[in-house]
Design goal:
The protein is α+β, with helices and mostly antiparallel strands. It has helices at 19-28, 37-56, 61-73, 90-102, 117-132, 136-163, 168-184, 189-200, 213-234, 250-253, 287-300, 330-333, 337-346, 364-370, 410-425, 427-438, 444-451; strands spanning 307-314, 373-377, 385-392, 397-403. Strands 2-1-3-4 form a 4-stranded mixed beta sheet. The longest helix is centred in the N-terminal third of the chain and has 28 residues, at 136-163. It starts with 18 loop residues before the first helix and ends in a 5-residue tail after the last helix.
Amino acid sequence: MLKIENLKVRGFLNNTYEITDLVVQFAISDRLNSVSCLTKRTLRVSVVDWVTVALAGRNEPASKLIRELEKETGGANESVVIGLKNRLPSRTAAFVNGITGHALDYDDTHFASLGHPSAAVIPAALAIADKTGCAAEKFYDATLVGMELAIRIGVWLGRTHYSKGFHVTSTAGAFGAAMAVSRILDLNNEQAKSAIGIVASRASGIRAQFGTMGKAFHAGIAASSGVEAALLAGKGFAAAQNALEQPLGFGETHNGAFYEKAFDNLGESFTVDNITHKFHACCHGTHATIEALQALKKKENIDSSNIKKIDILVNSNYLNICNIEKPMKGIEAKFSFKLVAALAVFGYDTGSLETFSDEVCQKTSLMKLCNRVSVKSDPDVSETQTKVFVHLSGGKILENTYDLSQGLPIELREDKIFSKAAALIGKPLVENLWLEVGIGDKLPSRWMENNFTMDG
């Protein structure tokens, strides 16, 4: 069991623990002694998922634009950049790969924190693993630590942080990235606390960017900020030693809730186990709606011709996250309850990247059905649920509820991720990726260099 010792209680901010001390002690502890097989398998699944989503996203406009910019800048030949033959500095690689991995918005989610834990942490850890040439085991330990802390810091900041407009993936994610890199670099306690202090001045991201390239940009700046902070701290750059919880620190200035229970059993149990992976190529907040309607369609054989209207009840948090009324572009379609409902009824493959195109937003048949869809909040609907009511022309009302929190057994999750990955980059490549990275000891970046043709 990983021991977290010598915690103090502060006399301010609701008597919170010295959160920075707690976070750092966990991040740089010598060993991770109580990691279960489930946690290890979930971590590997998440890495494989991120790699395939990032590779599939390398031709997205946001990915191409940032590669073009950073290729022109150039720099030291340190770390793999998805879509380029030549390596770039580690901080740059983390930035580009962070954006590329989130460009499709098809990566994992943790609903307790409302963030995408892989998006910021994996590209940061991978960039420094490349730079230092560390062993795969060290990379995976660091990635686990970083993702776990990104989740828990997100929970600690709470819904007040999110509801104010901050994007948890990029705020809490930057801290997770910094701690993952600190672990690979073997920073000491004081240096790692400085890394927290440095990244506290970098962590940023606003939800107004949802539905634009700016959302993917958040993952890139979180990853690169984490790399920058840890590298600077390792060189002796000093910063606030309790930047998370102290007065005028990150929590206070960013509407943190200071939810202390977020760190209960840190090192003994892992919230990473509860990561939810995407099997529809759109905002995770819409997935329960899709699942509920797809199940009704399969059971009742409904189609658009006999639907009078559809009522969708969701948690109020989603009304300003994925409720674009009239999406005009494919990236906006991923954040529209009305359009994903129409896609589900018409039987579109919502797991396919091609479904969420600019053209689909102009389909007359889809738009007509969208006009018959209403989206409302219900206080009894949790953040992982959706209730749908399909009113048929004959007066019959069909009802269904779906809850994403009903977790999948790890074996089924692995099968579904394998199928998703095969659809994204092809079965032969995924079989090799699973063998060498999913259950093997090869760094994902080494695998990409050896098995995937970079664009140059």
